[in-house]
Amino acid sequence: MRIILKQAETKSELQQILEIQNENHFQNVSDSIKSKEGFVTLLHSFELLETMNAKTGHVIALNDHQVVAYALVMLKEFQTQIPSLSPMFEVFEEIQYDNQNLGETNYYVMGQICVRKEYRRQGIFYLLYQKHKELFSDKFDFCLTEVSTTNLPSMKAHEKVGFKTIETHRDHLGEWNILLWDWN
User: How far apart are CA 19 and CA 12, in angstroms?
Assistant: First the structure.
């Protein structure tokens, strides 16, 4: 197996991201899988995924030209495109970190990260984030994300990368840890 990390470029790659997303959506996995391996909360439309990718390419992991994992980039400008994420962005804008208001910093959001089941526990999650750091650390102050407090596998994986929980909040979808990766 030879994993290649790159930014998504083709409609086929974007479609494969959506397939992985659907396979791992919380409504499509058992409670056992949710607690052991995690889940994703949102399903994107192809059009939104493509528009986001055109602004800042999503990072994908390929094996034999097939997408086996992805890590989406969501810029602040997309906060109104997914109404269920508006509360998250509102919270981000008000949080203080390192004596500054996050709303006044240049951050981006990890829009979602997921590894196909048969490729888990092989370090791909970590590699996706290292590729993000390589591509984006000189353009952004840091990366933010939000993880459900019930998604312990995702919390542990993000902490291993270097994310820190800076706040916890509740919205109409549940309780969330806000995580920040300060790569400086």
Answer: 11
Cα torsion 86, 174, 37, 73 to 10°: value is: 10
Q: Is 75 helix (H, G, I), strand (E, B) or coil?
A: coil
- 16-34 pLDDT, tens digit per residue, is 999 999 998 888 888 888 7
C-alpha pair distances (Å), 2 with each of 23, 119, 126 = 23, 12, 16
The span from the CA of 28 to the CA of 24, in Å, is 6
HSE of 13, CA atoms in CB hemisphere, 13 A: 21
134 contact partners, CB below 8 Å, separation of at least 6: none
Q: How many CA atoms lie within 13 A of 60 on its CB side?
A: 26
d(CA 63, CA 68): 7
**Spatial separation of the C-alpha atoms in residues 84 and 81, rounded to whole Å:** 9
Domains defined along the chain, listed by start: 3-181 (3.40.630.30)
- Indicate the pTM of the whole model: 0.91
Which stretches of the chain drop beneath a pLDDT of 50? none
